[in-house]
Write a sequence for this structure.
């Protein structure tokens, strides 16, 4: 079988104007599950994330709070960094857009786009959404507001900025979007195609330094700083060491398979603006963008600006890392919006984990510890095709559903075979049933590893020691 290409997988960079919330936890856990799965498949994986630390929102909030802007972003970058331990993430690169290596890369990409003739300067007047850090077109505005930030009033701004010739890339972008695997799910690809066909407008890529000083200086013009989107998107290559075109950049970005995860409102940024910037800078690209839905609350998008967020750290503190990973994997759709409440989370925790997986592992290993002479030799079981296909297509919920189908079937087998009774009247027959149960638990454990790595480790250690595992998921009433 041919060796698979190395895999590069990244999240978008969260904007550090508040503490992490469950919406970003969803994106990074999904990416982590995919990265862990491909690592288990003996594939070389470069998994990266980081923090987006420039822009008007950050500057305004830090100034309002009377804080030094660098100190402000250092604090929140540290909060996002804590997610690695809290969510048990396996990423091997973390990029901050205030780092010198990133600033160098963003300025180099600017120079290349300028040399290509795609950057020019002009005066502009328009409505600006601080929440999205972008100018709004008339077609964007709903009831006088940006639809993504209905609680904010757009601001009218007039100034001289640099612009990127996005309008020159319509045909090239349509050619990129014609590739069926350029965007998942496919309806997001169709959305991007429609956006491009409806006509592209050049977009502003700088701000006057006198008005907004917190940004990367524009090469050759100290009166301007880069627009946060031009700056932040460059992280996808700066994290690999670009503009050095060897090493990780060559191995993973140029020669590997590139996957970006992003929220569904990011289509114009990740699949249109960023792709055009890469084309202009003549950076070879094999990009695929996977768009996820949002976590909603009462049908309303959960976001920091709306103040209706759920704190992932508090969930982990009470229920454990793998409880949250499981919920995000199985009960939040990877592509569509999903309504999440703490009541639903608690119900799922008790039903699927405390009374489900945790109870199953405890029952089987109690039988094994009591009736088997010692640890069993566990043979490697191939990954089932249904499970493989689900994760290859980023259908994480379907992979989790498959695993829980196996868990439910194993519980049913215990109910039907009653090994705890059989072993008392026919020791050998009873032991054979228990051995079959342990083998199936080990097979399930293998499938749990990308989804719930801590739980998987505890279960396999219990199997190898022929001991009942610790109370994996204590019931919460």
């Amino acid at each position: 079988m041919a060796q698979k290409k190395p895999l590069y997988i990244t999240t978008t960079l969260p904007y550090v104007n508040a503490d992490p919330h469950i919406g970003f936890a969803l994106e990074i856990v999904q990416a982590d599950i995919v990265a862990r799965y491909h690592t288990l498949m003996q594939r070389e994986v470069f998994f990266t994330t980081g923090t987006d630390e420039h822009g008007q929102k950050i500057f305004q909030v830090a100034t309002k709070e009377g804080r030094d802007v660098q100190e402000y972003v250092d604090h929140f970058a540290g909060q996002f960094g804590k997610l690695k331990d809290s969510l048990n993430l396996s990423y091997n690169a973390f990029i901050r857009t205030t780092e010198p290596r990133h600033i160098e890369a963003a300025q180099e990409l600017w120079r290349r786009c300028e040399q290509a003739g795609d950057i020019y300067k002009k005066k502009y007047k328009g409505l600006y959404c601080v929440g999205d850090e972008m100018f709004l077109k008339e077609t964007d505005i709903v009831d006088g507001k940006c639809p993504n930030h209905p609680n904010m009033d757009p601001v009218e701004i007039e100034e001289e900025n640099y612009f990127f010739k996005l309008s020159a890339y319509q045909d090239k972008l349509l050619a990129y979007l014609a590739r069926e695997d350029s965007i998942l799910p496919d309806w997001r690809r169709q959305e991007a195609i429609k956006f491009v066909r409806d006509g592209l407008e050049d977009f502003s890529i700088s701000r006057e330094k006198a008005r907004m000083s917190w940004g990367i200086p524009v090469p050759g013009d100290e009166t301007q700083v880069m627009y946060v989107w031009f700056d932040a998107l460059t992280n996808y290559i700066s994290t690999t060491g670009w503009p050095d075109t060897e090493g990780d950049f060559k191995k993973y970005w140029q020669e590997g398979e590139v996957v970006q995860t992003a929220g569904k409102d990011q289509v114009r940024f990740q699949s249109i603006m960023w792709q055009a910037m890469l084309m202009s800078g003549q950076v070879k690209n094999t990009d695929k963008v996977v768009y996820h839905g949002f976590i909603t609350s009462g049908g309303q998008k959960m976001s920091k600006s709306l103040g209706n967020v759920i704190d992932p750290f508090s969930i982990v503190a009470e229920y454990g890392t793998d409880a949250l990973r499981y919920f995000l994997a199985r009960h939040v759709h990877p592509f569509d919006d999903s309504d999440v409440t703490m009541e639903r989370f608690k119900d799922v925790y008790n039903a699927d984990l405390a009374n489900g997986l945790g109870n199953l592992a405890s029952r089987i290993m109690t039988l094994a510890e009591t009736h088997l002479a010692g640890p069993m030799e566990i043979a490697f079981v191939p990954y089932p095709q249904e499970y493989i296909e689900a994760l290859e297509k980023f259908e994480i919920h379907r992979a989790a559903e498959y695993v829980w189908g196996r868990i439910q079937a194993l519980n049913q087998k215990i109910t039907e075979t009653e090994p705890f009774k059989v072993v008392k009247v026919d020791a050998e027959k009873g032991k054979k049933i228990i051995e079959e149960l342990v083998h199936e638990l080990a097979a399930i454990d293998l499938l749990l590893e990308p989804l719930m790595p801590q739980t998987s480790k505890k279960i396999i250690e219990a199997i190898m020691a022929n001991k009942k595992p610790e109370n994996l998921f204590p019931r919460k009433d």
